[in-house]
Amino acid sequence: MEKHLLSKSTFMYGCQCPKRLFLHKHKPALRNPADEKQQAILGAGTHVGELARKLFNYGIDVTPPDFYSYHLAVKRTQALIARGETILYEAAFQYEGVLCAIDILVQNGTQWYAFEVKSTTRVKPQHIQDAALQYYVLKNCSLPISDISIIHLNNNYVRQGALDIKSLFSTESVLEEVLEQQETIAQKVTELKAMLGSGTEPVVDIGPHCVDPYPCDFMNHCWAHIPAENSVFELARGAGWKLYEDEYQTLDQIPDDYELNATARMQLTHHRSGAVHLDHEALQQFLTTLTYPLYFLDFETMMPGIPEFDQSRPYQQIPFQFSLHVQQTPGGVLDHSEFLGDGLHDPRKEFTETLLSYLGTSGSIVCYNMSFEKSRLNELVELFPEHANRLDNLNTRIVDLMIPFRKQWYYHPDFKGSYSIKAVLPVLVPALRFDELDIQEGGMASLIYSQLKYQDAVTATIQRQALRAYCKLDTLAMVRIVEVLRDLTPFPLQRRGKS
Ligand code: SF4
Fold first, then answer.
1. Regions of the chain short of the pLDDT cut 70
2. Which of 23, 25, 218 to mutate to test the pocket of ligand 1 (most atoms within 8 A of CB)?
3. Domain 280-488 grouped into CATH 3.30.420.10
4. How far is the CA of 59 from the centre of ligand 1 (A)?
5. What is the pLDDT of residue 4?
6. So where are the chain's domains?
């Protein structure tokens, strides 16, 4: 059997961008270095796939020993079907150079049913396209296929005790949509095969397709002509693509009369003038809402697709860590407290009790992007109704330090249109740097925490230190940002809490 030209993955690359498919086949060395987080997401997908097999027990796994042996899997699939096997995992089929492997294939009577497993909580358009290719190959291989479905995680499932596999997954037939796409799929297959056969690299410019539906792994190569600093893509609210289409690549090239949304215009104006925008009155007003003692608080969470703990759903945010800096008076001494789960057990009970023991009953709780912390507190109220009053009290005391920046009461050209703490901190407090830490963003913290249980003792200790350092910097950053805002807006009125 000749080696396949297209697989399901490479077909999907080609649908996203023919150049991506070409580079994958002919210039793989241009690929971006591997992304640890992306690898972890792929790993999670594999785990979900294995669990879903339990919906159809006692199937035969046709997965070949390596990627280069799919021709063996195709032959084995044919032999197993001929032998009367009725449940196959990764059954492989090939039609005119297009290979597909079906996650789960089940025979009932004379008909076959195909199932694709996804680690998402709903069916996405790219899943239909993916299933449509599988169906195209199966039909052309003359398999009597009655239905094709997506099995995905059910986000209404709440774990209680052992995993209930039947409730964990939802199964949705996509046959109707798949049938509608058959003609398009056949055309696309012909087109992509012809492109690969020609050996000529397609001319495709960068565009929103570079990240939709998945971030392309050749972006370092294709985006090399975009300047690292002051490119039009630094403009807020997606203004960059229109400018790029109009052949502007840098902020300095944009004509003065170019139509921009208000945020992008403000950003450009400040970029050109280098001037800082400061609304003294609004900032002062904001600072008067801070009631001492101030509690600077930040949560870290993880979102396991397969619920690890009782009373949790797929991808539910599980708070596992917080950092807290407490300051009794403006410029006063700082106390630091923290909590970090053990990485093995459900951290939420201890997290909640520790949090309540540290946060008192009065004084503002300062968060950055407070909707995140508020949502987690509301979820804890549902989980621990016995603490509802005290948790609700925390929620009423939260003040969002992001507001002055989101509302542009303070804007610095070096924020580059962003109001995230990662953009604001280096400008206001250059001495504090996330980029010097081993963990530099929440996604990485979540990944490292969720893998702690697999680490040896020495590695786990180092990683726990890194988690502490990261979360601590988040709250120290808020302390220093408030100090800077106070210095910028000499502040006559200070209020104190009751206790
Ligand atoms: S970076 Fe964009 S243009 Fe380049 S191959 Fe990927 S999707 Fe295509």
1. 1, 36-46, 237, 490-499
2. 218
3. yes
4. 39
5. 84
6. 8-198, 225-275, 280-488
